[in-house]
Design brief:
heterodimer; A: mainly alpha; about 0% strand; globular; B: about 375 residues
Chain lengths: ~475, ~375
């Protein structure tokens, strides 16, 4: 079920109404049933994978809690890792490795052909896998106690607002809220409605609008020109933020209407000091996960500059690979890792002077980071390495700035101008306070409603992060 | 709590009683309903049908117009850009619409043939006209404002296809009859059409917007390259399809089908039977199937275009009231096109003048030179 569907607009109020009407002890049953219904409305059979992952981690968690020695808990952790990462590998990465192994053998003249499977990636698998893994690892490390109620644990894994595209929640944050006997509060309703309205605005008015030009240019990069690629990349940077943060807003707002607070994923990510700052503000639930469960163990106690450089680069490549099993995603992570590494060296090198000029600090540096991000986002959007080469070739060697050249082959100049207008409409929303408190919430909701109704697209498009 | 401007307390301790929630939500719901209905009223009365040459304006005109002498032109954007009514006949009206292949034109032909008329019908005919595209070509914004007409409602309910993501899609949806939400997703499109018609040096000539823009060498270069790339991708997918060691996914299959359809002439048997029935059942009307002039760069990219010409000639030869006029290779100049596919106003004037003479000659019973 898509958030941006009539189905969800009917589903959500029904669930919320029943949630507050129901006896508080039985709310988990409603939410669990609702969450599985939400998931199964896409492809019912894949609910079995979700359930299997849930059952194995629940059982492994209980077993680990009964063993005092860390060593004794290890087999259960390994079992959880193998099960979860195995499923993720099979559905998301198997074909990628098969094709590359085949290509590798072909390089040496060997004709080995590993199998390939025509399989559809289960929605949300990258998200709920990381969520359940964090649970198992935390229990293994003795950081949390296991959940003994299967219903609450299953709800933690499948809670519908964040099931498909996060935020990736930690059990210590979400399960206590699911168990809490929450009363309906005006503050929750206010925040929930405001957040949902903001999410729909970002998705329907901004992301779906600018995606038309992005899709047009990326359909065949080799026949685009530098101006088109530049503008498409700017639009894509806007689209990816509006799309994913819009999803997160709807998720957070939906949960909050039931009094449940999900962690936020974005904190004005584009206006930053450096790439390290960017990754601490973009998809925060994922980067925190990676920081806790991958980067920190890899760094260990030794924190030399060189080790930091290599670990950070590797970690960002993993983040890139998490987004999709293609070389462009890996290169995207590598690019970010290298830029971050170079920026760190420049920042901390004793012989490189620190520029203290306020204009540089507050304007030039953030703008420079935006330019670098736009250049790197080409890898994120490209389907193949050939596309990346074509894109950079156009940007640097085929740049002609002219309105006719910019719109060459594109069907409508008016449509293009409406995309530019939609992008500008996004700007004020970035400056909203985090609690979304306005002098008149009614006015805010009315304005949002009017904008969404008049300018919203009916593309019935999936959210970008559904594919990850 | 300041109820006057609906300021809700930020205190977490403010419990919301059902009565309080109902009071707040009632206000929002009432505003939403009033706004939706008011917007719907403004759009339907002042925007949606304000320009007769918009798609919905054309369909409405066709439904309402009872002029027995009107000569309608149906077809895709090729028709819209090529036939200049002023140069053809004082009774000619151009109903050409973007992407209107037979899945759209069949409705317009059905409406036209239901009228008590003898005037000829002009159908722009190209190598894709009778193809059945699984991705629906039907633009709902054209038909939603006209659902009061039974023929439109029937058309939408019977039309099915897929959306760009490959999901099965029924063109008709129940919410299209609900005032206020029926235009959701299309408000901007209606407004944009209106703005476009008012901006620049464009004027309406019975269904045609005259534009001064002409194609550039760069447009042609990019267009040719795009066609070549699409053809190379098609060939690569063909190779992938037969390679036992490669994975040919449903997405690949859909892409291959799309690339193939774009350049190869093909037709749907059902559509062919349907159009032949229309010809047979309307013997009192002359049907002109017209292949409009094309950019030579485009024609060169179509591998079996000759088959399309032979097919069209054969189709016309089976019906006394059907004429196939092939102007594909009519000599053209660079500035006859506004982009590599569509005529500029200059090109439309040139072509329509020639077509008009042929039309009159055939109507007088002197036969066709094409």
């Amino acid at each position: 079920m898509l958030f941006n569907s009539l189905h969800y607009i009917i589903f959500l109020p029904i669930v919320i109404l029943l949630y507050f009407v129901m006896k508080k002890n039985w709310r988990w049953v409603l939410l669990l049933a609702g969450s599985y219904y939400f998931y199964m409305s896409w492809k019912p059979e894949y609910a079995a994978i979700l359930l299997a992952s849930t059952a194995i981690d629940f059982w492994a968690g209980l077993r680990m809690s009964k063993i005092k020695e860390k060593k004794g808990r290890k087999p259960y952790l390994i079992m959880s890792l193998i099960t979860n990462l195995g499923m993720l590998f099979f559905f998301k990465y198997f074909n990628f490795f098969s094709i590359n192994i085949q290509d590798g053998f072909a390089l040496f003249g060997a004709g080995y052909t590993p199998p390939l499977y025509n399989i559809l990636l289960p929605l949300g698998i990258s998200f709920y896998t990381f969520q359940t893994l964090s649970y198992s690892i935390d229990i293994y490390n003795g950081n949390i106690k296991p959940e003994t109620h299967f219903g609450y644990f299953a709800l933690y894994v499948s809670f519908f607002p964040q099931l498909i595209a996060g935020p990736i929640e930690r059990s210590s944050h979400l399960i206590p809220q699911l168990k809490k006997k929450i009363d309906l509060k005006m503050e929750d309703i206010r925040y929930g409605l405001n957040k949902i309205a903001l999410g729909f605005f970002k998705k329907l008015v901004v992301a779906d609008s600018v995606s038309v030009f992005v899709d047009y240019v990326f359909l065949d990069l080799s026949v685009s020109n530098g101006a088109q690629v530049w503008v498409a990349l700017m639009f894509f940077a806007i689209q990816s933020f509006a799309d994913f943060s819009g999803y997160t807003d709807i998720a957070m707002g939906s949960a909050r209407l039931m009094g449940i607070k999900l962690i936020d994923n974005f904190n004005r990510p584009y206006w930053v000091k450096n790439f390290r700052d960017f990754w601490s503000r973009w998809h925060m639930s994922l980067t925190q996960w990676i920081f806790i469960y991958l980067q920190t163990p890899m760094l260990g106690k030794s924190r030399s500059q060189a080790k930091l450089f290599f670990v950070n680069t590797f970690v960002l490549m993993v983040i890139g690979f998490w987004h999709g099993a293609t070389w462009p995603f890996i290169l995207f992570g590598l690019g970010h890792g290298l830029v971050m590494g170079v920026q760190t060296i420049i920042e901390f090198h004793p012989r490189i002077p620190v520029v203290r000029n306020q204009i540089y600090q507050k304007a030039i540096r953030p703008l420079w980071n935006i330019v670098l991000m736009i250049l790197l986002v080409l890898m994120y959007r490209s389907q193949t390495v050939e596309d990346i080469i074509n894109g950079y070739d156009k940007i640097f060697f085929d740049f002609r700035w002219n309105y006719d050249v910019l719109l060459s082959g594109f069907h409508s100049g008016t449509a293009f101008l409406s995309m530019v207008a939609a992008s500008f409409l996004l700007l004020p929303t970035v400056l909203f306070n985090r609690e979304l408190k306005f002098r008149s919430n009614l006015l805010y909701l009315m304005v949002m409603f009017v904008i969404i109704i008049l300018f919203g697209q009916d593309a019935r498009q999936q959210f970008l992060y559904f594919q990850f | 709590m300041q109820d006057s401007n609906f300021y809700i307390s930020n205190s977490d301790s403010t419990l919301a009683t059902p009565k309080l929630v109902a009071k707040k939500l009632w206000f929002i719901t009432a505003f939403a309903i009033i706004f939706l209905l008011a917007t719907d009223w403004v759009y339907i009365n002042y925007i949606v049908f304000s320009k007769s040459f918009s798609n919905q304006g054309k369909v409405k005109r066709l439904l309402d117009n009872q002029d027995p002498e009107e000569i309608p032109v149906f077809g895709s954007s090729l028709a819209r850009s090529a036939f200049l009514p002023d140069s053809i006949s004082p009774h000619c009206y151009n109903y050409g619409m973007g992407k209107a292949l037979y899945d759209v034109s069949r409705l317009l032909i059905e409406i036209e043939c239901s009228k008590d008329k003898n005037a000829p019908i002009i159908l722009e005919f190209n190598q894709r006209t009778l193809q059945k595209n699984p991705l629906s070509n039907i633009k709902v914004s054209t038909y939603v404002p006209l659902l009061d007409y039974p023929v439109i409602e029937k058309f939408m309910k019977e039309s099915k296809g897929k959306n760009s993501k490959g999901d099965d899609l029924t063109v008709y949806s129940r919410h299209y009859v609900v005032p206020g939400i029926r235009f959701y997703g299309n408000f901007l499109e209606y407004t944009t059409s209106l703005v476009r018609s008012k901006v620049g040096e464009k004027e309406n000539n019975r269904g045609v917007m005259l534009e001064t823009k002409t194609q550039t060498e760069y447009d042609i270069e990019m267009f040719t390259k795009r066609m070549n790339n699409a053809n190379n991708r098609r060939l690569a997918l063909e190779a992938k399809k037969i390679d036992p060691n490669d994975l040919f996914t449903p997405f690949d299959a859909a892409m291959l089908e799309e690339y193939t359809r774009a350049i190869f002439f093909s037709y749907d048997e059902g559509y062919l039977a349907e159009i032949e029935n229309t010809f047979k059942n309307n013997r009192h009307r002359k049907f002109f199937l017209v292949a409009v002039p094309m950019n030579p760069e485009f024609i060169n990219q179509l591998p079996n275009y000759d088959e399309f010409i032979a097919f069209s000639n054969s189709l016309a030869s089976r019906h006394e009231n059907v004429y196939f006029l092939n102007y594909t290779e009519l000599p053209t100049e660079m500035d006859y096109f506004k982009d590599p596919l569509h005529f500029s106003t200059k090109g439309a004037q040139y072509f329509s003048g020639i077509f008009s003479k042929d039309l009159q000659r055939i109507m007088r019973g002197e036969g066709s030179e094409q």
